[in-house]
Amino acid sequence: MPVDASTALDLRLNHKLTYKQIGQMHNVSPQAIHQKLKPLIPEKTLAEQFRANLSDIISNVQLKALEAYLSLTDEEQKDMIKRRGLVDMGIAYDKGRLEAGLSTANLSMVHQVVADMKEAKRSKSGS
To answer: Considering the entire predicted model, what is its pTM?
Structure first.
């Protein structure tokens, strides 16, 4: 019986079962479970390195996107803006702000809603 990777992954990550326990449930060896899940579970040190360098990784993605954009002709840039609106650059920009602990929200809109609510409350209590 083939091992369902999503079920085995759920049991491993969310229910903290060992490869042996999962293997027993599927009537396969712990090694079979390990081999099935190995490509799906990143090495801990690799994940830690990724998190530790995330800000630099995001900055690099932003730089590569900008370099790619700037390497286009004026006509290609105009076409790209029409088709994609530099979506990739915007996403990278937002991720960079999040990584830096900065807001990605348009707060002026929030302030306007709060002001409108206060005005409505004043109007209601004054009538």
So the answer is: 0.40
